[in-house]
Task: structure prediction
Amino acid sequence: MWEAKVIKAEDVVFEDRVGQDPVKTRFARIVRQPLSGGLGFGILECDDMDADWYINYDEIFYILEGNFRCIIDGKVYEGEAGDTIFLPKDTQLHYESTGKAKLLYIVNPEGNVRWRSLVGRD
Result:
């Protein structure tokens, strides 16, 4: 059984996306396994992000700052501060931002094997 927990701001650790030079994407995976039984939550900060991705989980982005786009089969899903983007499991897509953007994300289930291989650790 999981327990309630307060995660203090000073305990949140941002990681750079591996393989980017210069680094344009940072993320903080705040809630993940084993704390949660499958739900993942974090913060994504990006600057002119341009990345292909496949999600094997449902994903929700809440845009805090800037603008953010997801392109699926040529269709653009674009939001700005205050907007939410929902993406269903088993979707091949392209993420983009123009300039700086900051987002909250929720994934279910957390634990994408590709993500773990990109960051080089659990």
Notes: Strands lie at 15-16, 25-31, 40-47, 50-55, 58-65, 67-72, 75-80, 84-87, 91-96, 100-108. Residues 21-119 form a domain with the Jelly Rolls fold (CATH 2.60.120.10). DSSP finds one helix and ten strands in the chain. The chain has a mean pLDDT of 87.
